[in-house]
Amino acid sequence: MNRKINIVAVSGSLRATSSNSLLIKEIQKWAPENVELTVYQGLAKLPAFDDSMEPSESVSAWRNELAAADGVLICSPEYAFGVPGALKNAIDWTVGSSELVNKPLALITAASGGDKAHAAWLQIFSALSADIPTGGDLLIPFIRTKFNDKGEVSDIATKESILNTVQALIQAIEQKASKAD
Ligand SMILES: Cc1cc2nc3c(=O)[nH]c(=O)nc-3n(C[C@H](O)[C@H](O)[C@H](O)COP(=O)(O)O)c2cc1C
User: Fold this and answer.
1) How far apart are CA 61 and CA 119, in angstroms?
2) pTM score, two decimals?
3) Which of 26, 27, 113, 167 has the most crowded CB, counting CB atoms within 10 A?
4) CATH superfamily of 5-180
5) Order of strands, edge to edge, in the sheet holding 105-110?
6) How far is the CA of 86 from the centre of ligand 1 (A)?
C-alpha cells in the first residue's frame, strides 16, 4: 500500500484505569511507521441499540469511522463471564449497516481469565462476517500482572504475542488491498 494503513482501535472498557485501554496505548507506541492507529473515543456516548429510531449523530460517526478504517483492533475485558455491554451495544449498531463485513479485525481479550468473553467475541464477529485472520486473536489472562508500575507491558512473552497479533492484522489488510488492485 502506498499510503498509511488506518486501524481503528476500540477498548471495550470505559474504566479510567482500564488495562485494555492501557494495552491500546502501548500498541500505539509500537505501531510501525506505515500504520496510523486511532482510538475510538465515542463508546460511552452511543445510545442503547434500537433500530426503530433514526441513528443518532454518534451512531453515524461510529459507523463512518469503521467504514473508513482499513482494519479494526478490539481490546476487550470479560465482565461477569461475558462480553462488556458497552462494546456489545456498539457492535450491535453495525449489524444492519454491515461495516464489519469482510473487515480485517484483530481481537485481544485481556482479563483475569477472559476465556468466556473471548469465545463469545469470536462467535459474534463470525456472525458479522468480520475477517479475523489466522493469528489475529489473542487471549491474555492475568492481565493485571503483565504491566509494570508505569503502565507498560513488562512481560516479554505477552508483548511478543501482541505484536504478532497486530502483525497478522496488518498482513490481512495488505493482502486485501493487493487483491483490490
Ligand atoms: C464488573 C467486573 C466484572 C468482572 N468479571 C470478570 C469475569 O467474569 N472474568 C474475568 O476474567 N475477569 C473479570 N473481571 C476482572 C477483569 O478481567 C479485570 O479487572 C480487567 O482488568 C478488566 O479489564 P479493564 O481493566 O480493561 O476494564 C471483572 C471486573 C469487573 C470490574
Assistant:
1) 28
2) 0.97
3) 27
4) Flavodoxin domain (3.40.50.360)
5) 35-39, 5-11, 71-76, 105-110, 137-140
6) 14
Is the distance from CB of 51 to CB of 98 less than 8 angstroms? no
CA distances, 178 to each of 1, 6, 34, 70, 173 (Å): 8, 15, 16, 13, 9
Contact 21, 153 (CB under 8 A): no
pLDDT in tens, 124-176: 999 999 999 999 999 999 999 999 999 999 999 999 999 999 999 999 999 99
Q: What is the DSSP letter of 55?
A: P
* Nearest partner of 177 among 79, 97, 89, 102, judged by Cα: 102
φ and ψ at residue 150, rounded to 5 degrees: -95, 0
Name the grid cell of 117.
Answer: 468473553
Pocket of ligand 1, beta carbon within 6 A: 13, 15, 18-20, 77-81, 111-114, 143-144
- Hey, which bits of 23-93 come out as E strands? 35-39, 71-76
